């Protein structure tokens, strides 16, 4: 962190430039995250979240197609390339130049929806998600009418500058018209979305997510100011993220021990390491199901979740596990492990 960051922080505070202040604070948090001081980074982000004094301006009960989303949830760790894009979104919205429509694409579990929540916290905006179950209708032509009504509701927001609208899994209404079984119906629906996006107020921030980007209607892609690829995770990124997730969860389980070397060896056994969402569930389940008082039972459970079949002691040794680590994973004493390996 440079002196300039601290000076800018003081300067923006004195000028009451809230957006610039928060962006600078976010940069400082990012610096501490990059050097491995995750606790301080998370603490700064938590302060930014807690500083949100915005009181609700929009009652979701007054709208048919929206529902409020709680943003006070744990964000999934992201690699630097995606973090930089998210900071770019924050900056773009702060400049108020009409760059306000963003598409997050990538497989499930990559953090698309959780990142939308984090952006809402940073920008001090409320997050409302579109309920596509209410938008999509089996009646001919009704889906298109509902989409038009949805965008009319967005246009009628009393304080659009205080809201982010999330089209989570927008592919429900935006799959490529060429690949649809009902070309006319999907054509009408997609045309309604195109029209709605074209008429969207610059004050509204709209984020859409999709798991099916390759099937996405290309005309619709062009309506977004930026497309963020959430599949840009290297193997090293995922190993680091797994470590971050475990470190965040360990304090909640007082009887378990920290053995990061063995933990990372186990995660490395994956031919394809899962994305953060699945990693988080896998680690949390292993910890939650661990036997009380059994310090490393969660590591054994995590290992068994990866390898469904039993491995011999020799197999474990060949995979690089030490005698002590084999004892943890199998429950066989070190002396017996050593004896059998020698034999």
UniProtKB/TrEMBL annotation:
GO terms for molecular function: ATP binding; ATP hydrolysis activity. Keywords: ATP-binding, Nucleotide-binding. This is AAA family ATPase. It comes from the Bacteria. Transmembrane segments: none annotated. InterPro entries: 26S_Proteasome_ATPase, AAA+_ATPase, ATPase_AAA_core, CbxX/CfxQ, P-loop_NTPase. The keyword Glycoprotein does not apply. Belongs to the AAA ATPase family. Signal peptide: none annotated. Residues 98-234 form the AAA+ ATPase domain.
